[in-house]
Write a structure and sequence with these properties.
425 residues; alpha+beta; five-stranded mixed sheet
Length: 425
């Protein structure tokens, strides 16, 4: 903090010789390829301040700074979107807001630790490793179905990247998956609430789908109370009924969170990884020759084009950070995508290198799963599913290529993924 009498720095410190980096985070061009903008921000405005439609935010883009904010107890996780806190909003919006408020993703301190502790054991590396045979079986069955069609074509998103994690997380929780398209629609509609660039226009659909999914889950909860099984939802219900450590709304909210987070980001991980490897054929050839390198390839693809580009924190009070005053009224946007390509942390960061995280590179750490108290609970499962998907594609579909050079992306700023990824084999 400056000494008494000093002039405090501007909220967006920029060298007088350097113009502010111009970008519009709702611009489809920026969303299609944000990395050149991230590079300019890292160099010219490592902590950038922006105001848009009354929303104020700081953008942090350098690895070291993002890492420190994630670990800093002076910052808390972002709260419910302000659109859901306005007076006079529809009741469906209020119910959506209540669900979001009770998700561990938006909780802090003791409440976050309590909710996370209720499901943590299901996602430890040791527990997840036991799922490997089942994940491999599902992946093989999905590729079998593609090959049986005999068309020589495949949409990686629709045929593998979406159904694989949906089926795995549904089985883990004990949720019926008879109607995958409906389940996917609910998930897509609700996920936009977490993405500021598409949030406002998506709220009515998100609220409706959240209500429908919550009603669906209430029916499943009632069935599990009558007939408990060896699944995570039954365990959560038992904890709720025995210890009252979980309210009904917390039970529903966090079941929805686990369903969404358990597949939405993994779908994007697999799609982004396959696209990156197709665009770097030398690296893909290494994986084809040595499919046992799939785990390291997943780590590099997570760094290179992460499925979650941004995370947000809020200062609990005025916080002086690297000479900048972060104030509680402005969100601190941490750019994971920018930090993961910081040359101060990763050599030649614009190059895809599936061997980067092998050998001595194991000491490296990308930020795609976050850090600290909110480190991604499902990271071990996402890594397993991603590695198996890449390994199966490399071995069972060894000679495939993109059917179109620029496959369509889903709109979004926080969640980065493809709408489809057609290939020929």
């Amino acid at each position: 903090m400056p000494a008494t009498g000093e002039t405090p720095p501007r909220p967006h410190p920029v060298s007088p010789s350097q113009p502010i980096v111009a970008f519009d985070f709702a611009d489809p061009v920026f969303q299609a390829d944000p990395y050149p903008t991230y590079a300019a921000l890292r160099e010219r405005e490592p902590i950038a301040y922006r105001e848009r439609d009354g929303f104020r935010s700081f953008w942090v883009t350098r690895y070291d700074a993002v890492e420190r904010v994630l670990r800093d107890p002076r910052f808390r996780s972002a709260t419910t979107p302000p659109e859901l806190l306005q007076p006079g909003i529809p009741e469906t919006f209020r119910r959506l807001g209540a669900l979001l408020e009770n998700m561990m993703l938006l909780q802090n301190g003791a409440d976050h630790a309590r909710l996370r502790g209720l499901v943590n054991k299901a996602f430890t590396p040791r527990t997840v490793e036991k799922l490997r045979p089942r994940v491999e079986s599902i992946a093989d069955a999905l590729i079998d179905a593609v090959q049986t069609r005999g068309s020589g074509q495949m949409d990686v998103i629709a045929d593998l990247a979406t159904p694989l994690p949906v089926l795995v997380v549904a089985e883990l929780l004990g949720i019926p998956t008879d109607d995958q398209p409906q389940f996917k629609k609910w998930s897509d509609d609700i996920a936009v609430v977490l993405d500021g660039s598409v949030r406002t226009e998506g709220l009515p659909r998100a609220a409706q789908s959240a209500g429908e999914l919550a009603a669906f889950l209430r029916d499943v909860v009632a069935a599990r109370r009558r007939d408990p099984r060896e699944d995570l939802l039954s365990a959560m219900i038992a904890t709720r009924d025995r210890d009252e450590a979980l309210s009904d709304v917390e039970l529903t909210a966090n079941a929805i969170l686990l369903l969404l987070a358990g597949h939405e980001t993994t779908t994007n991980l697999v799609g982004n990884a396959v696209l990156a490897l197709c665009r770097h054929p030398q690296e893909f050839e290494k994986l084809r020759r040595e499919p046992e390198r799939a785990e390291a390839a997943v780590e590099e693809c997570l760094r290179f084009d992460p499925p979650v580009q941004l995370t947000a924190r809020m200062p609990r009070e005025d916080v002086w950070f690297d000479g900048v005053r972060f104030f509680p009224e402005a969100e601190v946007t941490l750019s994971i995508g920018a930090a993961n390509r910081d040359a101060a942390r990763f050599a030649d960061p614009e190059r895809l290198d599936i061997g980067r995280f092998e050998g001595s590179g194991r000491k490296l750490r990308h930020l795609s799963f976050g850090l600290g108290a909110h480190f991604c609970l499902g990271a071990p499962l996402a890594r397993l599913e991603g590695a198996i998907a890449l390994q199966r594609m490399a071995t069972r579909l060894p000679a495939f290529e993109l059917a179109r050079p620029d496959p369509p992306r889903r709109p979004g700023l926080v969640l980065r993924g493809l709408a489809s990824l057609p290939i020929r084999f």
